[in-house]
Amino acid sequence: MSNISKLFVNSTKNFSRSFSRKTVDPSFLKITPETKITTLPNGIRVATEQTYGEVASVGVWVDSGSVYETEKNNGVAHFLEHMIFKGTAKRPNPQSIETEIENMGGSLNAFTSREHSAYYMKVLKDNVPNAVDILSDILQNSKFETSLIEQERDTILSENDYIQSKEDEVVFDQLHATAFQGSPLGRTILGPVENIKSITRDQIQEFINENYTGDRLVISAAGAVNHEQLVEQVKEKFANVKMSNVSKEQKRSTIVNDFVGSEILVRDDEQPLIHFAVAVKALPWTDPDYFVLELIQTMIGNWNRGIAAGKNIASNLGEIVATENLAESYSTFFTSYQDTGLFGNYGVCQPERVDDLVAEMIKEWQRIATCCNKNEVERNKQKLLANTLMQYDGTSKVCEGIGRQILTLGRRLSPFEVYTRINEITVADVQRVATTLLRDVSPAVTAIGPLANFPDYNFTRGFTYWNRL
Amino acid sequence: MNSNILKVHSIFKKLNFGNNIKILNVNQNNTKSKNNNNNNNNNNNYSSFSNRNEIGLVKRVNKSILSQSTISTYKGNRLSYTTSTNDNKDKVEEIVKSTTNSPFTPINILHPKLVGEKLYSNENDANNQKEFKAEISTLPNGIKVVSKQSHEGVCAIGLYINAGTKYESSEDRGIFNLLEKMTFKETKNNTTSEIIKELEEISMNAMASSSREMINVSLEVLRKDLEFILSIFADQIKSPKYLEDDLKEQIEVCIRNYEMIINSSCDQLMTEILMGVAFGNGGLGNLVMATPEQYLRVTREKLLDSLRKYYVGKNIVISVTGAEHSQVIELVDKYFGDIPYTQKDTPSEDSIDAATNYIGGTDASVAGSIHKEYLNNQLQLLLEQQQKLNDNKNSNNDNNNNNENENDLEMIGKEIEQMKQSIERLEKQNTKESSWIIAFPHSGLSTVAENKDIINGLVLQSLLGGGSSYSTGGPGKGMQSRLNLNVVYSSHHVKNCHAFLFVFNKASLFGVSLTTEFGYLQDGIELVLQELLMLSKTMNQEELERAKRSQKSQILQNLEMRSVQCDDMARHILSFGSYKSPEQICKLIDSVTLDDIKKLINKLVQSNPSVVSIVANENETILTAEQYVQIVKQNASTLFK
Prior knowledge:
The complex is a heterodimer. Chain A is an alpha+beta fold. Chain A has helices at about 1-15, 75-85, 95-105, 130-140, 145-165, 165-180, 195-200, 200-210, 225-235, 250-255, 290-300, 315-325, 355-370, 375-390, 395-410, 415-425, 425-440, 455-465; strands at about 35-40, 45-50, 55-60, 105-110, 115-125, 215-225, 260-265, 275-280, 305, 330-335, 340-350, 445-450.
């Protein structure tokens, strides 16, 4: 069955296409305004993309997340993110911050990931100075009152309960725990319950002092902002932020994350469906082949029962999964970190189809490594380019894109460079990268649900050097 | 043989695992062996190029009933390149940072080909200085084209048709929902698979939707693909095939949607019922979804006929962001120029609107009752079918036929069994929440051209605001709004409470929705009434200013998204023929005074409301429209002096 459907796929793909479009001049990609970057004496980098309009997004992006924690204070970065809204000397309580922001029609939000923390505001254009003022105040002068810390524990614990009830969150936490066991990336962002219950004010204060230093802060803005004015405001408001005495590179080079091919299975026969992930070690942010792996990610694709395309999906794996009814959904993920990364497939399926689904996924990796064709690579390059450039919709997304790129790459990729880098990828590059990363490797595997039929680790491992496609 | 001592790392203890955990470790290069025989002691960060798999010890730990946990170690295959330079054998250098031997430059360095090249165009600076305005043109055949230039290389493109369930007569209910579902299907020029694959490759957020007053198809692409997309859209409405098989499949999809909506006590069901209560049967009161029987009556011919009648020049608006207006006009003319202005039998919107009147009233039901009724009807049909087959069996002696009959009987038997089970399950279902909506009639969007009724309504909506007991996100979600502070925060039995404004061309509904734990609905309603009826006495300038600012910023923030911008322009044109820019709308919002809002709320609360409720069970007390009117009348002297 699977072989027949695959023959069919290949034949339709090589069919002459009824749509033919002439190659286009990519110079239209240069119309996006340039991102201006200024580094202040205390190391803070200010980056703006001015697109005018009525609204501006301003955010502070910090090179700090759970990766900088230890076993003892795991969860403190996230706890800090919660406590930072709770009051400063000038704005004594949470309500005063809320009212001030709502009175100007703005919004304030934050998140913490394994490597980054971000605090960002969206305001009308004349409120940009207020936004800088609020952000600088909460980041430098938060009081972290002990009574409020006690109150916040419950909020974080219920957030933890919520995350534990989400299968995908659990699977990805498990995946990190197994793939990066013994390394900082293996720990969760929220931290273990006993830490949430015991983190102290001193720990929070120590963490912010140590990590929120000038060289690790990026202030990014997009929309109705003027770069020069913003730089002046940041200079004034963030004047008290110190440069760290250890350089950023030095600090981070002591944190090493080793990938370990391994497996965690949590069997629960009460669940109707299996949720699982199969991942291999992938590339860090700056890797020259970053876009090649993103292209491979696009080629393997995503599918779920809801999508309108159904069986007509362009990806080979998607079509197999749809026609043979292998899964409820699957997705391909590629997560980069500063020194490593994770690449793989996440799937949700009926217990009796799981072995076929895992096999088809890894077979697809092998197919791309050995015999993907030019037509398919070119189509997916188009798609990757479109997806990469179209994701920046609205000032918040642009602001986030700037913040993340400055933190991870130290610079901003222009749309034209993205085009240049995607455009130069060849079939040989795809096969080279897929062969190195996806062939004959020990993956990290994790799953929850009714796992009686889940393939044995050696079976999964074996498929990574399977030659009969 | 590698004899690593195994330990389950302490991380695992912190994840909430039960007993049935299986952990397997494949340790890759635990001991960092070196195959360089030189003495590079201070360089032991480099690991060797080894690609062997040695199976280590297998050890049993943590015996559980369901799975035997095994832990084994491998020596794995980490790839990393090391080399020693010829002239200095003691020094080991990493030549390629990447593990994949890449010919490319790392991402943190500018691409060498682009060094010295201009990455941002010259005209950019000049362009940047001006704000772009929306431009509108009408083609000779009546098609309206609206576009707005932008600062990005991406366009949002939408095709909007002035048609929808409002226009459906009782005989052809479900037509527009199916027309929507048949979008991106095979045409005389392209197959479904070709269309879908092509769109998947170049576009984002491709979607079709149908509602009471509008059908639209929209998506986002890079600028280079604008022409191609317009040609695809034109192909869709000029030469669809509407294959019988596709239609059958989509009718099933619609029926499944119908079952899903009546099955859940979701907001969508409540608002659908509300529209019926407010506007009666027909016109705006038509539900967006039709019933399964109505869907089954839709034929290919009916679809083609509606397409011919409604998809005419005067009903079409094409909206684009991120392109030059002149280019858009040229392209639209090229692909849509041959569509006629109108057909003889195209219904006029005015006649439909004239027949639509606000009614008001109450609809109260117990959670699940609608679904139960539906299932019981289905069960009845199946039982009838079974009866028929049984009769056939008894009267027919032909062997072949009998076999088929047997099979059918068996199938139906199974279905009946399943149906009975679902009914049973539904009866056991224990809903713990009760919901209630009250809504008042208000002016429609088309009045924006003349007065600021709708603007006042928007400000009032933000002023009342709302929230839910499990809040998400930080400040900026209306935490300081009235309904959040005085209803959600004041009783922890209230699950959520929001003010809403449903806007249509000629009418709109302003109201408040409330969900509480079972048994506390009445308390919640009292709190809501307090807010609604006392608002004009208690509101102050500060909260009005906050509401105005928050409404403005919401509108402006939404319009940042290209798809919303595209949609917004089209809606304005469909509704009142011109476009009010965000600046104009914001000016109108600025001009709203305390007096405006007081007048509006007093007018609203004294009108005849529409009330919908779905309660957990019969014991829950609700407030009906009639009771509400009574309360207002009794207190009129004190409330509206």
